[in-house]
Amino acid sequence: MELRVIDKTADQLRLEIAGEDHTFMNVLKGSLLETPGVAAATYDVNPEQSGGQTEPILTLKTEDGADPLDALADAAGRVQSKTTAFREAFEAAH
Fold first, then answer.
1. Among candidates 88, 24, 31, 77, which has minimal Cα distance to 55?
2. Which of 21, 67, 74, 93 is 20 to 30 A from 37, comparing alpha carbons?
3. Rounded CA gap, 12 and 25, in Å?
4. Beta strands in the chain (DSSP E)
5. What is the pLDDT along the chain (94 residues), one digit of tens a residue?
6. In 10 A of CB 47, how many CB atoms?
7. pTM score, whole prediction
């Protein structure tokens, strides 16, 4: 996975996440929307509407002084924790 910051302000972040698809992007977006201080989170992978871009572009907007990079780190940490918990439960059931 490669990350490239396209644009960052105090309350917004646009980030290209190379090598990922809807599966990962939906999970990350869902986690972001559960993060305190996140006003909006979306992604785009449609090259027809994005000037030919094929890698997912994540757009994140925060409010109440929340830093978008901190919000992204929190959301990604929760995704990792849930993935680890699922793997452990699966291995215990197997």
1. 24
2. 21
3. 17
4. 2-8, 12-18, 38-44, 57-62
5. 899 999 999 999 999 999 999 999 999 999 999 999 999 999 998 756 656 667 899 999 999 999 999 999 999 999 999 999 999 999 999 8
6. 11
7. 0.86
